[in-house]
């Protein structure tokens, strides 16, 4: 994405040295390795500041509109916490049923309305491509917090940060993605982001839930090593990151198909006996039955730590698009 032209309505000093100022964050395809290093570095600073002072005034006076058309616990509350820890404030719209959306307002009009009151819009929506539609309608930055089965770029960034913090690097790792690879937007974004590194990707899923062919061929073009399996057994022992996903019940067109695949894989203490000692298990959460609670105490269970990294990454992204990082 090209750097946007400076906004003539803002003081020049606000924009100098801030290449992300005013940009939308819609897809991981926007990022290169250098961008990721920068985001990791800013996230690290955010962590230090949160640990040292808790809340500070970097985005004082700025307002975030948090517009969620789908359920969310972590993404929504971590964006709220991120904005508030930076001294800004939030207009929360979680229950779109109480907003003008139920009167038939289009997404474009809702976003145009919110940007009159806010400096940045975070959007979660059930349709793929909705974040791009919103960004086209808006003058202010739009951050995609999940568009249907499309992408979830801020999750992929926090996933990459988690891997780096926990294992030290991404190059040379084998990442195994397990579960619903068809509808899971988190794995779509993480697979694409991994192509910036020398990573091997294993996809393990029931036949009905395979990684979409267009993502596999997109990554093939960037020379990514990828393999597909229906069982975890052949790849567990070589895995450095086991990325488990929930079967996305709400995306199925027919309930019988969901019933066929819902309990396809369960990670528990017994399964993990054949995995490496130095590896991590991740999950974007919420989990249903795919990771047994008996594994939570294992030091390799990184999914709760992963949530915390989400706060720092979202603080970094908000500061960046608002020209303060
Ligand atoms: C994920 C999502 O919404 O795509 N959750 C999240 O943002 N942490 C995964 C899921 O809902 O299963």
Task: Give an account of the 3D structure.
The chain has 325 residues and is an alpha/beta fold. It folds into 2 domains: 28-151 and 308-321, Aspartate/ornithine carbamoyltransferase (Rossmann fold); 153-304, Aspartate/ornithine carbamoyltransferase (Rossmann fold, 3-Layer(aba) Sandwich), CATH 3.40.50.1370. The protein is 36% helix and 14% strand. It has 10 helices and 9 strands. The chain has helices at 33-53, 74-85, 107-117, 130-137, 153-167, 185-194, 213-221, 233-236, 255-261, 303-321; strands spanning 63-68, 89-93, 120-125, 142-147, 174-178, 200-204, 225-229, 241-244, 280-282. Strands 7-6-5-8-9 form a 5-stranded parallel β-sheet. A 4-stranded parallel β-sheet has the order 2-1-3-4, sandwiched between helices. Residues 74-75, 146, 152, 155, 185-186, 246, 284-285 line the site of N-carbamoyl-L-aspartate.
Helix and strand layout, with pairings?
Elements: H1 33-53, E1 63-68, H2 74-85, E2 89-93, H3 107-117, E3 120-125, H4 130-137, E4 142-147, H5 153-167, E5 174-178, H6 185-194, E6 200-204, H7 213-221, E7 225-229, H8 233-236, E8 241-244, H9 255-261, E9 280-282, H10 303-321
Parallel strand pairs: 1-2, 1-3, 3-4, 5-6, 5-8, 6-7, 8-9
Helix pairs in contact: 1-10, 2-10, 3-4, 5-6, 5-10
The chain binds N-carbamoyl-L-aspartate.
N-carbamoyl-L-aspartate binds next to helix 2 and helix 6.
């Amino acid at each position: 994405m090209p750097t946007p032209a400076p906004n003539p309505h803002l003081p020049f000093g606000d924009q100098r040295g801030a290449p992300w100022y005013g940009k939308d964050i819609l897809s991981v395809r926007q990022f290169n390795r250098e961008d990721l290093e920068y985001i990791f570095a800013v996230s690290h600073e955010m962590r230090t500041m949160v640990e040292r002072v808790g809340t500070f005034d970097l985005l004082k006076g700025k307002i975030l509109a948090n517009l969620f058309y789908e359920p969310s616990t972590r993404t929504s509350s971590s964006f709220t916490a991120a904005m508030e820890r930076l001294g800004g404030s939030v207009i929360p719209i979680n229950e779109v049923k109480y907003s003008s959306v139920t009167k038939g307002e289009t997404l474009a009009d809702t976003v145009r309305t919110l940007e009159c009151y806010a400096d940045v819009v975070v959007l979660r929506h059930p349709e793929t491509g909705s974040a791009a539609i919103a960004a086209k309608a808006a003058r202010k930055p739009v951050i995609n917090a999940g568009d249907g089965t499309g992408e979830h770029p801020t999750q992929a960034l926090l996933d990459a940060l988690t891997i780096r913090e926990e294992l030290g690097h991404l190059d040379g790792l084998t990442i195994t993605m397990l579960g619903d690879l068809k509808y899971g937007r988190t794995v779509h974004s993480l697979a694409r982001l991994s192509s910036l590194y020398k990573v091997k990707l294993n996809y393990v899923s029931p036949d009905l839930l395979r990684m979409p062919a267009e993502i596999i061929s997109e990554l093939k073009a960037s020379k990514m090593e990828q393999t597909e399996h229906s069982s975890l057994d052949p790849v567990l022992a070589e895995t450095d990151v086991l990325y488990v996903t929930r079967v996305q019940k709400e995306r199925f067109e027919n309930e019988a198909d969901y019933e066929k695949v819902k309990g396809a894989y369960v990670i528990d203490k017994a399964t993990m006996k054949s995995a490496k000692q130095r590896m991590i298990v991740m999950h974007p959460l919420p989990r249903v039955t795919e990771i047994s609670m008996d594994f939570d105490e294992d030091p390799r269970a990184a999914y709760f730590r992963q949530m915390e990294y989400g706060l720092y990454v979202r603080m970094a992204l908000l500061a960046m698009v608002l020209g303060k990082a």
